[in-house]
Amino acid sequence: MKNLRKAIVAFRVIAIVGAIIIVAGCGKSSSSSSTTQTQTYTVQKGTLLSTVSAVGDISMPEQVKLTFGSGGSTNDLNTVQEVNVNFGNTVKKGDVLAKIDTASLERAVEQAKANLRTAQINLEQASSETNILKAQASVESAKASLASAEKDLSDAQTPYSAADIAKAQATVQSATANLVVAEQDLQETQTSIISDADAAVRDAQVALDNAQRSLDTAQKNGDVSITDAENSLSDAEKAYNNFVPTAIGNYTNLSDYLSQKDRLSWNIQKAQANLDIVKSQAASSIATAENNLAKAKDALQSAEENLVATKAGPPQVQQKQSAVATAKAALDKANEDLAAMQPDPTAIQQKQSAVATAKANLAQAQDNLAYVEAGYDTELLQIKVDNAQVALDDANEQLQAATIVAPFDGVVAAVNAKVGDKVTSTEEIIYLVNTSKVDVASAVDETDVAKVKAGQTAVITLDAISDARLRGTVGAVSPVAQSTSGVVTYSFSIQVQNTQGYDLKEGMTAAAEIVVLNKTNVLLVPSAAISRSGRDSVVQVVTASGTTEQRTIQTGETNGTQTEVTSGLSEGEKILVKTSITSSTTSGTRTPTGARGGGFFIGGGGGPPD
């Protein structure tokens, strides 16, 4: 058990580390690389262990709702005389928990005794002659009832003539033909009108696409023209600004200098005017394109609305639809009339049942007559005596049930009555739970259900009691699947064995680790060291000289990470293991990825790679 707990802890640590590695590798990555490393591994013996995890709820299957009485009328009220327990009390099997006033039950016993004596007297005083007359009258009454039932059945089987049915069938055929013509006419009208409206929508969409392209072109050309004009203005300003401070010394004639300066100034004014013109033209072109786009959108919306209205039914379509509805109504009426003329299966079945009942009654009456005539009528009275005896026994049972006794050791989970209350025989008075018998109700995924077997060991932990480590045994696994959102599971239960010392409550969440594989002192190698050569499993063995040789081995069980070797290797030998390491680069940092979970291995076998 200690090794099992260590294995579970190790498994959880591996799972957590794997999850951290995976999360660490989920950031942005600009590149990734994969490398393969070869390591040596010393073959040793150890324990091969694999578990299946499951989550469930604590349940206490042995529970009982205790009432006063095992039968009788549920409306009879009895007064509670004693309540000897309170909520939360611990009781032992056989403890008296509560009692009711037994006066009425005792009277019921006396009445049952009187009824029994009356039946006994009737049996003793039975008159055979009177019984024969009654039996004969019953036979005649049963014959009359049978004749009436047979006539009613005949009337129900043939309610209309063949000519009436043929006329109704012809009316159905005519109405069917009229409906076909009306539906064809409607289909042709809808196809023509909707086709035109649909074409208008397509044309409007093309116009909208063209208007959008025109706007895009106007915006693009405007941006280019404005940029060119702005560049020309910038060049003119640079030429002026560069000339004024530097060129005055290069001119001997002031008039030439001023003339050149005025020319450069004029270039600036002309470039500014050109920029203003370009911006105005671009704004005008864009406004015109936007206006055309808005018109195209309006036209498309109008065409689409027209298409919707057309599909909803213009006047000519509505007329055709009305004709179809009229034809359907006529056909429905004709079918209803024809169906009403057919024999009613329900009525026939009822009449047949009535005939069968009448025949059975007649047969029973004839049997009774023969029974009485043979002198066996006293047996019927004997049955009444027997029934009276059963009623007396029931009354005695109800009298005994007036005292509630604990059927097993347990804890009182509810007390629903107090001394003086009026209760019926079916009201729950005390709810008793056996807290020493505890199960875990859980379910296993379809990928693991074949591994889980009855009798397997499980270790159970509880969210509510963190230090609890309970042992359990797997009970029956349900053969019936349950599917929720596409996930298939199978229910099973775990019988908890060591409940002492823990305050367990029904409904507590429980996590179970079920040991599905546990082989000790077996030769183990990493599963990654095994490859296939044809149909054989092979490993690369490191010889004493340092070279490697391929060797065929026989394998047994595996948990996905470690594999049992049954022959081909000896403890202490060294083999090669190739491991693939994938890394990714994120913001300049390399993060290993590719962590995987699975079964786990404990014990001395294998150890870490050398």
Main attributes of the structure:
610 residues, alpha+beta, Elongation Factor Tu (Ef-tu), domain 3, Helix Hairpins, 3 domains, 8 helices
Provide an overview of this structure.
The protein folds into three domains: 2-61 and 437-602, Elongation Factor Tu (Ef-tu), domain 3 (Beta Barrel); 128-158 and 346-376; 167-329, Helix Hairpins (Orthogonal Bundle), CATH 1.10.287. It is built from eight helices and 22 strands. It has helices at 2-24, 103-124, 128-157, 162-246, 254-312, 315-341, 345-373, 378-400, and strands spanning 31-42, 44-59, 63-66, 78-83, 90-91, 96-100, 403-405, 410-415, 422-423, 430-433, 438-445, 457-462, 470-484, 487-496, 509-526, 531-533, 536-542, 548-558, 562-567, 574-586, 589-593, 600-602. Mean pLDDT is 82; it is low at 1-30 and 586-610.
Overall pLDDT score: 82
* CATH 4th-level superfamily of the largest domain: Efflux pump adaptor protein, beta barrel domain
Number of helices: 8
In angstroms, what separates the terminal alpha carbons? 30 Å
Q: Approximately what portion of the residues adopt beta-strand conformation? A: 25-35%
Q: Architecture of the largest domain, according to CATH?
A: Beta Barrel
When the domains are counted, the total is 3
CATH topology of the largest domain: Elongation Factor Tu (Ef-tu), domain 3
Sheet bearing the most strands, described? Answer: 6 strands, antiparallel, barrel
Major beta sheet, strand line-up: 2-11-14-13-12-15
Judging from the principal axes of the Cα atoms, what is the shape? extended
